[in-house]
Amino acid sequence: MADLRQLTALDAQFLAIETDRNYGHVGGLAILDPSTAPGGKLTIEDLKQLILDRLHLVDPFTQRLVSVPFSIDWPYWTRDEHFDIGYHCREIALPDPGSKEQLVEQVGRIYSRRLDRSRPLWEIYLIHGLEGGKVALLSKTHHAAIDGMSGSEILSALYDITPEPREVEPSDGEEDHSAPDGRDLLAAWIKGIPRAPLNVFDRVTTVVPHVDMAVAAFGLPGSRQISRVMSRVRIRLGADEDHVIERPPMKAPKGPYGASLSPHRVFGLGSVSLEDVKVVKNTFGVKVNDVVICLVAGAVRQDLIFNRELPDEPLLGMIPVSVRTEEERGTFGNKVSAMIAPLPTHIEDPAERLEYIHSVMRVAKDGHDALPAETLRDLTAFVPPALHARAARVVTQLAGRFTRPPWNVIISNVPGPPIDLYFAGAKLEAMFPLSIISDGIGLNVTIMSYRDSIDIGITADREQTPEVQTLVDGMQSELDLLLAAARTV
Prior knowledge:
Layout: E1 4-6, H1 9-16, E2 25-33, H2 44-53, E3 63-66, E4 76-79, H3 85-88, E5 89-93, H4 100-111, E6 122-128, E7 135-142, H5 148-158, H6 182-192, H7 196-207, H8 223-236, E8 265-273, H9 274-284, H10 288-306, E9 315-322, E10 336-343, H11 350-369, H12 375-380, H13 385-401, E11 409-414, E12 422-423, E13 426-434, E14 443-450, E15 453-461, H14 469-487
Parallel strand pairs: 5-6, 9-11, 11-14
Antiparallel strand pairs: 1-4, 2-7, 2-13, 3-4, 6-7, 8-15, 9-10, 12-13, 14-15
Helix pairs in contact: 1-13, 9-10, 9-14, 10-11, 10-14
């Protein structure tokens, strides 16, 4: 039987929420200069050959999903015995003049299609015809297979630091490409039954005292009270806690970017100067991430004012945090937690917004650091696999229609390399991240640092936020205001 790797409950969550309107894949849009490549061009054959040479470095590229009969356990990844590189690598061309607007429109069309679950869950498109002789690589990979850090590891596997591709050691040994059948998967489930009570007890004692800080339960009625009671019980029983963490009662305002999604995605793409961000950071004594969040808050505030939707209370932002250890590098899947923090969309002065963010992020980090790293994974594991998909979809739909969302905006900061990268000899000019939104949470801002810039990718619903590019422009405007404020300090 082929090697199997089981999805965690958190991995499966990204499969469970997927519908014809909610997509579970993440991606990136790389802009490349082919003039540095051999012959001054990048072809689909070059793309396929580079990936084939490095397939053994990127397990998700050759693994497909297999389900356990009756959904009594989480699915597995197994080797695709019919892997076809030609299916996953495709090429298209933009019509003249190949403008940024044409590119973004085409990316939106491609991104608004679900991945085929009978195959490995990724696709890469080579897009020709961009202005200035550039080409683009649009990638889509399911979030069930990767998180932000493992996505960066794929970037490292496929890109080089010189135009000349590095030598990559071939895979050692023969891979088993046989597919497991239902009996194999049922046998694996039965084998794990004796350990189940111990696993459940361990997870209950870890999760319940922190249930109100775990993002899957954030905002549910009674979670705060349950957490406080259980924390006190643990202290009385001699647990290693000397105080109860008081969590601030935060609620996301209902409305902004909170409608049910359409099937269509739209993207805002741009870059800001990393050096300018560092000037603001150093002047005000804050962190780079504080400045990035402030840029988002200022842009969102202006957008909501323009659309007459600005609430009196601050919006809530969810900031994913990697909990991947050094030992877990290269394992792929999801090793993430999250911080929840209010965004100062209610504050008019940009310097005051930055000070507010610096303060609340310290509190959020203290709360996050007190939360066991695996709490998010363990909490989602309590829902039986057979009910998981239905429960996840119901909760997602409620957030978009009847209840307050758990948060309004997702803000993700993915560290990137400070040096030039090359793909098959073509120089990487920019890497714009593309991400996930869902019913009730229709705005995602993901940034990646690369060389001396911060590349911004804003994912939104085309029907709710058609002019999403103005949010990118708003982030630059907010940075200009902070630089002006810095000059007066």
